[in-house]
């Protein structure tokens, strides 16, 4: 009997020690589950097999002319900038255009008889022609063009005998590609080119018999 009690006592002590050890040991850690395998991004996936040849770069797209700004005036606007009283002018004054420094005049003769005197010193250019709407010096002869010629004053720079530069406003005439020409001292002047006029020059337009003698105030 004594041995049985001693055996039960040791067995009870062993169970107490096992419970004490189990209460002191930490719980086992759970290993995190491996991440789920996701398929590769659809942006990196290509439905075509890889090519063994390198792809040449695409040429740059040509600029669309309709998309570019165009600051040039339209046809109607361009014509309007060179019109007078609704009439399209054939002539534009050059940058060197100036008003004359002296009072130039045209003495008009017909059959050696003076019929008129025109003062042409108040502006830088005078249009000669049959179109009275725009002409500064109207001429009615049928052989003359509507816009026949222009007397233009221009500032010309030259050097004097001492080598100094000096500017002088001189009269020129330009034929506006007229049908029957412009004549100075009996010689036809080149068309669409400035021709310098001198004092006492005699000018004729087309087949008109009227003569225009050029003088200025100091010589009159």
UniProtKB/TrEMBL annotation:
Coiled coil residues, start to end: none
Record domain FHA: where: 126-189
InterPro entries for this protein: Cell_Proc_Reg/RNA_Proc, FHA_dom, SMAD_FHA_dom_sf
Region annotation (Disordered) ranges: 1-74
SUPFAM superfamilies in UniProt: SMAD/FHA domain
Residues spanning the membrane: none
Source species, domain of life: Eukaryota
UniProt xrefs under Pfam families: FHA (PF00498)
Ranges of Pro residues composition bias in the record: 47-62
UniProt biased composition (Basic and acidic residues): 1-21
Listed name of the protein: SMAD/FHA domain-containing protein
UniProt source species: Dacryopinax primogenitus (strain DJM 731)
Lineage: Eukaryota, Fungi, Dikarya, Basidiomycota, Agaricomycotina
